[in-house]
Structures are given as structure tokens and as C-alpha cells.
Amino acid sequence: MRISVVAIFVLAVLFFSCGEEEKVNDTRTVFRYNEMGSITSLDPVASSSFENIWAVNQLFNGLVQVDDSLNVLPCIAKSWEISDDGLKYIFHLRTDVLFHPHKAFSSESRKVVAKDFVYSFRRLFDPEISRALSVVEIINVKNNIPSIIDTDDSTLVIEIKRPFQPFLNLLTMKFFSVVPEEVVTYLGKDFSKFPVGTGPFQFRMWDDSKIIFLKNPDYFEKLNGESLPFLDAINISFIRDKQSAFLQLIRGKIDLISGADAINIDVVFDHDGKLNKEYEHLITVLTGPFLKTDYLGFYVEKNGIDDSLYPLKVKAVRQAINYGLDREKIIRFFRNNMGKAADHGFIPPGLKEYSSSLVKGYFYSPDKAKLILTEAGFPLGKKGLALTLHITDNFSDIAEFIQAQLEKIGLKVNLLVEPSREINKAVLKGEYDFFKKSWICDYPDPENFMFLFYSLNFSPVGQNYFHFKNSRFDELFELSQKEKNKKIRMKLFNEMERIINEEAPVIPLYHDKVVRLVNKNCSGMKLNPMNLLDLRTVKKLNTNPNY
Length: 547
Description:
- By secondary structure, the chain is α+β, with helices and mostly antiparallel strands.
- It contains 16 helices and 23 strands.
- The chain has helices spanning 5-16, 50-59, 114-123, 133-136, 167-170, 181-187, 242-250, 265-268, 315-323, 327-334, 366-375, 396-408, 420-428, 447-450, 471-482, 486-503; strands at 30-34, 64-66, 72-74, 77-82, 88-93, 141-142, 145-146, 148-152, 155-159, 201-206, 210-215, 222-223, 226-227, 233-237, 256-258, 283-298, 339-341, 386-391, 412-417, 434-440, 506-519, 522-523, 539-540.
- Strands 15, 16, 17, 20 and 21 form a 5-stranded antiparallel sheet that branches.
- A hairpin with a 2-residue loop joins β8 and β9 (155-159).
- The chain is globular, with a radius of gyration of 25 Å.
- The two termini are 28 Å apart.
């Protein structure tokens, strides 16, 4: 039976109000996780950061979803067909999915129908609100109207402008979640603060210290016949200091901290990446592959400038820098083995059907680096070979190590520490020649990593920040978008990676791990290489009913 809005409010008071109510012996379960970053919006069209994506994933659903093995599974779409030419996708929708209650509806709530997806997808093309413009360009646009049609309430047809094999993977992004037009119209810009979706949890409140979601009693998914989710509520806190957040975790006031950068790894782990024994009775550590690559990038497009004035234009110099860095030491001594050295290439391990081990990357060899520089006309001790590496403060320790290593092969590197926002702006405009960035997979396909090097994606329009161009690479990339045979398609990506390794527009440093510290009283927490937080199946023992 459906719980009324009034009843939900009463539950919220019992869970979260201060004073006498906190002492009620309530057996309901509240899962608490800390977010060190900033959640800026709960609207799916703005779900471009991890902070936003994690929260939005609890509130919204799309046509399809990805499981922990990166398989694309039904969600609101129960089945689909794809035309032989790969241009038309026909989705058949469930008829039992309800939006969360809101007064903008004529009744307390209503069912999701195909036209809701037409409306939701068209919002993605609105430059005033959407952060998905570079993604939705793949969908065919005619006179600024995407070719998305609702043939009836339970049938949706999407036509794209060219074959794009990872299209279903693309639709797993939270951008493509369904939203109700009545509520968006009613709330306007405030929809980002008071969202209404179809997800396992529904929005309750948001202030400076926390965000609260409550269990959706009408959620449509089940596990082994049992309705999801198992938790009664989610509380997201915003403790910025990682030591304070960790203290709250071991005291049982927080149930989850995620990410190597969100914890003091020297306190929590030894150099082999094992949890220190004093915390073993309090914390469960979950780790797994993360589709993320941290790298140093070069801006290689400097036409008309002499090589001696701009050495990064010279491929041999970029190759030498790759050989001059000890990635294994970076992982062991600066990351406590929380990750893997990028010794094969840019694409990380963990992608289904793709084997990065088939590609030979760079290894640490300062002698080889010095030889390459000498042959290129930049022998050890030659003056004028100085570089400026633009970094953020949290990368300073590793950057100083890189600086010392490159000095040994004859390269002087100046470090310039700046806010990430300033670096991102400058890199997008092509203003920096040497910079540190990372790439996190948007959707589980090697294409999402290789499209950074496609010449038609030059920044500032696209994400080819390097302005790298190679005709053979472009040819392979275009073939991969329409190739249906998975084995052949993966071989195309292997060849693309070999070209990137040879031309060296980047220095892949390491691939992160998904790292989660979870309280022992929680179970059912799953991991996936996308590092998407899924709390549908999490259970919690309420060992302390008063907190």
C-alpha cells in the first residue's frame, strides 16, 4: 500500500530532527555517506560530476542500466530492437513505473510514458541547462529537434545520424534519466533543488550540512521477489576535512567514505595497500578496477614554431619523458598501491571484452630516455630545455617526484600550482603546453577513452585537449563506431592505442582503483568499474538506534 506524503514527512521527523526525537528507539535504517566535493544540482541534465551523479542515481532511472560486470540491462525499457543499419532503436517500456508524488500532478503521482522520454531527451539539447551537449551530438538533430518519437505510451523510437556501436552504453549515463514535464514546468530552475524522479529513493531535504532521501515505497524493481530498496533513507553529509570524516566513520556516524583522495591513505593503509590492523574490526575495505586514467598531457599543435623553441612538438622528446618516469614507484610510494601503473597505455583495465595487456606501453628507462633526447638534438646539459607543468595542489607530491626524475634526463620542469577550475579553462583553450589531468569513463566502452584523440574533437568544442591529429588513428576510430563484430572492434582499439603510445601526446601515469571504506554493520554494497554508487541492495544492521 502506498505511503502518503504526510506519512513520509512524519518518518523524516523521526529520522532527522534534533532534540527528543533522536532518542526514539527506531529500527529504521539510515545509510550515511560523506561527500567531500560539492553537489551542485540534482537535475539529471547537470549530472556531469561524480558528486552529482552519485546523488542523481538514487533518484532517477533511464531506459537502460549497467550492472557490476558492465552489461547493459533493461530498466524502464523492458526490451528493445535495433535496425540492421544500426540507426534506429525501438524501446518497449514497462507500464508500472511511477514518478515520485508531487502536487504538480493531477493526482498524487502518475505513470511514466514514452512522451516523458521525448521531453527529457529534448532538455539535453538546451544549452542554458544541459551539461550533456557534447554527448547528445551523437543523437540525430534536425532543426535542433532530436529524432525521438513516442509512437504510443509504451513505445519509444530513437534514430541516430550514424552507426554508433556503444549507443546503448551511452544511454546508461544519468543524463538520459526520465523527468516529469509538469514538475519541471511548475518548479522551473528550482527543479535542480527539489527533484522528482522514479528512482529507489525520493528527495526529502537539502541544506548546507546534509541532503536527505527517503525510500520510495512504489519503486518498481525487486530482488528475488523482495521489493527494493532495503534501506529506509540516505543521509549525505558534507565534511570537507578527510581526517574528520574518517573519525566519523570509525565512530559509526558515517557508513561510507569513497576514493583514495578522500582518505589519508598513509593512516588507513600500509604501502602494500592493506588495511591497518587497528581498523579491521570496524571497517570493510572494498576495492576493484576503476575506469579512470590520470595522465600528463601535451599540447602538440604548434605550427610554424621552431623545434628548439617548442621541444614538446618533437615526438622524441615526448617519448623520452614517458621513459623517464617510474610509474611503479608513483603507485607504491604515493598511492600505497591504490591503483595500477599505466604501463600498457591510456585505456585502463576493467573494460568488458577489451584487453589492454595486448598493447606494449612505456617502461622506466632513464638511459633510453637520455639516448632518445641526444639523438633528437637535446643532449643532457643543453640549456633552454625547460617545461612548465600545470598541476593542482593535491598532485604536488607526485609532481615534485616527476620533476626530480626528469631533471636526471636533462629536462628542467617548473611546477605551477593552480585551482583545477583555472587549469580546466586554460587547457580547454589550448593555453597550456604541459598539464596534469585525468579522464573518468562516461560510459563503459573503449571508444570513450579513444575519442579524446580523434581530430574532429579538438578543444574547445571537444575533449581532444592535445590537438593531436593522425589520419590512420582517425580512420580506425571511425571504423570502430560502425563495426559490429566485437573481436574485430577491440582489435581496432588495440591498434589505436599503439598509435597513441608511438606518437605520445600523453603520458599515462596510473589507473585508479575504486576504494570504499564501509562500516561493518552494512552489507550488500557492490562495486563496479564505473564507480557508480548503487544503494538499492544495501542493508544495514541498526546496532545503534539512537543515531
